[in-house]
Design brief:
Layout: H1 3-6, H2 12-21, E1 23-24, E2 27-28, H3 38-49, H4 52-65, H5 69-93, H6 100-107, H7 110-143, H8 160-165, E3 168-169, E4 172-173, H9 178-193, H10 195-221, H11 236-241, H12 244-251, H13 267-296, H14 307-314, H15 318-352, H16 371-387, H17 393-414, H18 436-447, H19 449-455, H20 461-465, H21 469-488, H22 492-506, H23 510-534, H24 536-540
Antiparallel strand pairs: 1-2, 3-4
Helix pairs in contact: 3-10, 3-13, 3-15, 4-12, 4-13, 5-12, 5-13, 5-17, 5-22, 6-7, 6-17, 7-9, 7-15, 7-16, 7-17, 7-23, 9-10, 9-15, 9-16, 10-13, 10-15, 12-17, 14-15, 15-16, 17-22, 17-23, 21-22
Length: about 550
């Protein structure tokens, strides 16, 4: 096994020719229904981004950061903005399904593409398990105890009393989260029967929840007590950054838009617009919501699972709280739908390249969707949601997404410059980072020198040092990229995207890095046991 074979790349010219001919390595892709336009893609982005984040994890972030959490949404949006521009560059030049997986195959080669594809499985599938369980919680609140408790609970969170009260089969208590499973079945059905039906459903849900969120913002501002905004950052900037994982979890969805490239009417023009428009709209809404939350009640009261409903109960408006619960059910349904659409299309691309069995790339003869991959995705999400209660998935999903963003930004740096073309498409502007990147790094090092020195302090021993390992890796990467920027005049936007994403990764606990590393290790075992030998590039070689 040579190192060259591990980094064999797909030709950009071949991918573009396949897309133009409606073929990809012999698999028919031209049959997919090309019905998505800018408004549909923007709606899909909003559907994926405004979900569990705005209805649940924003409370945890506000508890740590106070009113200053609004700045964290700005920082995260800027970070995602750099990545979105890089995604847009790729999406316009490589207008096929697969998202970051396909982009990495073109630039870094097969091994990196497999790793990022495996990371995206973690992002989409495990993230959706958490969303399904969250959806069940909101749904059960609306029904107010109509469904028996043993049908809306999980084994790992059930009390001894519930275990005793539940029906038993062969001495084993039957405890299921049936609503979580049923919503996954419904959403998987929508994703199975076609992009046209999924598009209509997503557009409707997005319109409804944006109206509700705007209503909440307008009404909420009348109940804001400005005294609650002081101090703005009660726990300092480090307190604001404690919510980075919860906040970033809210933003991970915009990359799912890029998986629908082959179902876009004009992917080279519309995909970039859809991603960027959705990112801007969602950022404005998140900032306004965070200011309303922290203004209505003291930030110390916001460590709850349903912060939006909670604050309106505190000002004696329970009917708005009920409206928010209804909106939360709709919002999380739309997130499920977008991710259930995205995951099978990544598997479809990996299957076409021979890295997964051929069945994953098979299109339904009538619906023109990756039918087998869609069903498998439904099972992988639905069955765990029926029995489990996962609690660390926001951190784990965020670290996988940030990793994907870093590779996409890095891929743009080594993507060959395009010759002049008559096709109208998005092109990321080139800004010479030769002087700007070193200048920014030096400036930030001066401004935050106390915090940086504290991380390298010898006090505390190994117990302190081990939690700073991600930061040490970030420091090495920053020095290396700064040197390359100065010597090779690297493009500024992708460099800032890589560094900002890597920094956000350092704010995620070390235990999640370890779990993520184990997940990648399992993926590498599958690659070397199956995918390496069955790769279509291996057959050509």
């Amino acid at each position: 096994m040579s190192s060259n074979s591990l980094f064999r790349k797909k030709s950009l010219a071949t991918i573009l020719k396949d897309a133009k001919d409606g073929l990809s390595d012999g698999h028919e892709t031209g049959g997919m229904h090309k019905v998505l336009k800018v408004k549909d893609l923007t709606a899909m982005g909003i559907a994926a981004v405004i979900g569990a984040g705005i209805f649940s994890t924003i409370g945890e972030a506000s508890f740590h950061g106070g009113p200053g959490v609004s700045l964290l949404f700005v920082i995260t949006a800027v970070t995602c903005g750099f990545s979105a521009l890089c995604y847009a560059e790729f999406a316009s030049r490589v207008p096929v399904s697969g998202s970051a997986y396909t982009y990495s195959y073109v630039t870094f080669g097969e091994l990196a593409a497999w790793v990022i594809g495996w990371a995206l499985i973690l992002e989409y599938a495990i993230g959706n398990i958490a969303v399904a369980i969250s959806w069940s919680g909101y749904f059960n609140n609306l029904l107010r105890g109509i469904i028996p408790e043993w049908l809306v609970s999980n084994y790992d969170s059930a009390s001894p009393e519930l275990m005793a009260a539940a029906p038993h089969i062969g001495g084993i208590p039957i405890i299921l989260n049936l609503p979580a499973f049923m919503i996954v079945v419904l959403v998987t059905y929508l994703a199975y029967v076609g992009i046209q039906e999924s598009k209509k459903s997503a557009n409707f849900m997005v319109a409804l929840k944006i109206l509700v969120i705007l209503f909440v913002i307008v009404v909420g501002f009348f109940y804001v007590n400005k005294a609650n905004w002081h101090p703005f950052m009660p726990n300092g900037f480090s307190g604001v950054l404690k919510g980075v994982s919860a906040v970033f979890f809210a933003y991970i969805g915009f990359d799912a838009v890029s998986t629908t490239a082959e179902e876009c009417a004009n992917p080279q023009r519309d995909l970039p617009k859809g991603m960027i428009y959705s990112l801007i709209i969602c950022t404005v809404l998140y900032i306004l919501i965070s200011l309303v939350l922290t203004g209505m009640v003291p930030f110390t009261n916001l460590k709850v699972n349903d912060p939006l409903a909670y604050v309106f109960n505190q000002v004696n408006l329970p009917w708005i709280s009920y409206l928010i619960s209804v909106s939360a059910v709709v919002a999380t349904t739309s997130v499920l739908l977008v991710f259930q659409i995205g995951q099978p299309r990544i598997w479809m691309s990996m299957s076409r390249d021979g890295l997964l069995p051929k069945r994953f790339s098979k299109l339904h003869p009538r619906f023109k969707t990756p039918s087998f991959a869609t069903i498998v995705t439904g099972l992988i999400v639905g069955i765990p949601a029926l029995f489990l209660n996962l609690t660390i998935v926001t951190d784990l999903t965020s670290i996988g997404t940030l990793f994907a963003f870093i590779l996409v930004c890095g891929g743009v740096l080594i993507l060959p410059r395009e010759e002049k073309t008559t096709v109208k498409r998005f092109q990321m502007p080139y800004i010479n980072g030769q002087l700007i990147v070193p200048g920014l790094v030096i400036l930030l090092a001066i401004l935050f020198h106390n915090e940086i020195l504290a991380k390298f302090s010898m006090e505390g021993g190994w117990d302190v040092w081990k939690h700073n390992i991600p930061f040490y890796l970030f420091t090495v990467a920053t020095v290396s990229i700064t040197f390359l920027s100065a010597t090779r005049k690297l493009s500024l936007i992708p460099v800032l995207g890589m560094l900002s994403c890597f920094y956000l990764m350092t704010e995620i606990a070390l235990k999640n890095w370890i779990v993520f590393g184990i997940w990648l290790g399992i993926g590498l075992a599958i690659y070397f046991l199956y995918s390496y030998q069955n790769s279509k590039l291996a057959a050509k070689a």
